[in-house]
Amino acid sequence: MSILKLDYQGLPVHADREAWFNATEIAAMFGRRPIDWLRLPETERYIQALCKREAEKQGKSEVRKSHFVKTKKGGDLSQPGAQGTWLHPKLAVAFARWCDIDFALWCDEQIEALISSGREWGKARAQSSIGYQVMSEILQSKRQAEGKATLPHHYGNEALLCNAALTGQFKPLERDRLDKAGLSLLTRLEARNAALIGSGMGYRERKAALFDMAASYRHSMAAILPKHAA
Questions:
Q1: Are 178 and 167 contacting, i.e. CB atoms less than 8 angstroms apart?
Q2: Three-state SS across the chain?
Q3: Which pLDDT does position 75 carry in this prediction?
Q4: What is the rounded CA–CA span in Å between residue 149 and residue 131?
Q5: How far apart are CA 171 and CA 14, in angstroms?
C-alpha cells in the first residue's frame, strides 16, 4: 500500500491512493477510538447495508465487513501511518463527522481529490509498464540484429539506467511509490532510451542524454530519494 500524507491544520492524516483513511490516527486527534464508532448500532446497520449493496453490484452471495474496514498490524510498517484501522472512503466521511464536523467537511474534499488524482496516477502507472515493455522489445530486436542473445541482465541494466536517470541511484525502483510526475517522466525516459538503443548510440552517450533529460526532477526529489528506492 502506497501511503500519502495529508495535512489538516498542521496535523498529519494518512490515506492511500484509493482514498482509504487511517481512522486510528484521525480518532486520536479528537480523543476518540474507531472501535467506539464501529460498535454504534447505526454504524453497524450502515456497514451491513453497504455490504449488501456491494454484493448485489458484484453479483456475489456475500460481501463482508472487511471489504470496508481493515486493520493493519504488520506488513510494511516502515511507512508512517501504516498501522491502525483503515476505513473505505464510503465510510470515511460518516466517521469523520462523528469525530468533528469541520474535519468531516475537509475530509469530504480530500476524498474527492484523492479519487480524481488516483485515476490519473493509475493511467500513468499503466503507461510506465508499457514503456518498459517497448524498451525491452527494441533492445532485444537490436541485439538480435547484431547476432547477440539478450539475457535477463541486459534488460535489467537498461531498467537500472532509466531508474538512475530519474533518482540518481542504480537500484530497483518501486514504481507504486512514485508520484504521477515521476511515472510520466520514467515512461519518457524509457521511450527515449529505446529510441537511442535503436539508433545505435552507446551506453555512455545514452546515460548522459537520459541524466540530462531528468536532471530537474532528480534534483527536486533528492531530499526524499530513500523513500522511493527499493
A1: no
A2: CCEEEEEECCEEEEEECCCCEEHHHHHHHCCCCHHHHHCCHHHHHHHHHHHHHHHHHHCCCCCCHHHCEEEECCCCCCCCCCCEEEECHHHHHHHHHHHCHHHHHHHHHHHHHHHHHHHHHHHHHHHHHHHHHHHHHHHHHHHHHCCCCCCHHHHHHHHHHHHHHHHCCCCCECHHHCCHHHHHHHHHHHHHHHHHHHHCCCHHHHHHHHHHHCHHHHHHCHHHHHHHEC
A3: 52
A4: 21
A5: 27
With vertex at residue 135, the alpha carbon angle to CA 130 and CA 140, rounded to the nearest 5 degrees, is: 125
Question: Could you tell me if 191 and 131 are in contact, meaning their C-beta atoms sit under 8 angstroms apart?
Answer: yes
- Residue 131: per-residue pLDDT: 82
Q: So what's the pLDDT on residue 227? A: 45
- Does residue 8 contact residue 106 with C-beta atoms inside 8 Å? yes
Cell of 64: 463482508
State the 10-residue block means of pLDDT for the chain, 230 residues long.
73 78 90 94 94 89 90 60 84 89 85 69 75 90 92 93 91 80 87 92 94 88 48
- The structure's pTM equals 0.50
* Residue 142 amino acid letter: K
C-alpha cell at 197: 538503443
Grid cell locating 100: 468533528
Q: What per-residue confidence (pLDDT) applies to 111?
A: 77
